[in-house]
């Protein structure tokens, strides 16, 4: 029975790898990290080039890079909108999680200047059901910033540990400074072997930002 289950899982993974052009990086045994480059359309022009530059070298465990879960490229619904769960992209997303069973998930998003105030709105939890995103660095230009937060509503019951689900937002016209910040964060995820170690390393590098994010996430996940 176990052999049949493993064979079925391997077939599903092969199918997903072909459809989604998934890249896998493996070291020794350890945790699995899934990085998703596009949850819905309008973001791929920013996120795909970043993932092309990103060459993970895990010390242990696996890194699975999923360029997109929006195969048709026609989903425009925000992941914080309950309607997202009825989209084809969400079904693909669920399949990825079921096949790879990750300990850590990272979502990459790209925002435009008009969306910035909504994403960072201090009252976003009350208005949208999710906390505001926080910049790692309080740069004067939003094109220099990388915003971060926790899981979307549909994933928060599964990923309750701080650091196990990271949402990242970068400006669609990001600068080299923002690119460096985002790639640094991804490398911390790759080099850490637990959510807590990710949190510790990010807190060491961005203490004020992580303190605020932790407080917001506690209210959200409780």
Summarize this, please?
With 222 residues, the chain is α/β, with parallel strands linked by helices.
What do these coordinates show?
The chain is of the alpha/beta class and 222 residues long. It has one domain. It contains eight helices and seven strands, in the order H-E-E-H-E-H-E-H-H-E-E-E-H-H-H. It has helices at residues 2-20, 44-53, 88-100, 116-119, 124-128, 176-191, 195-205, 207-221; strands spanning 23-26, 32-36, 62-66, 104-111, 134-135, 146-149, 165-171. A seven-stranded mixed β-sheet has the order 1-3-2-4-7-6-5, with helices on both faces. The model has no long low-confidence stretch (mean pLDDT 92).
**Unreliable spans:** none
Mean pLDDT: 92
The number of E-state strands comes to: 7
Terminal CA distance = 38 Å
* Number of alpha- plus pi-helical segments: 8
Label the overall shape. Answer: globular
Structural class: alpha/beta
The total number of structural domains is 1
Radius of gyration: 17 Å
Residue share in helix: 40-55%
Secondary-structure element series: HEEHEHEHHEEEHHH
Largest sheet: 7 strands, mixed
Percentage of β-strand residues:
15-25%
Strand order of the largest sheet: 1-3-2-4-7-6-5
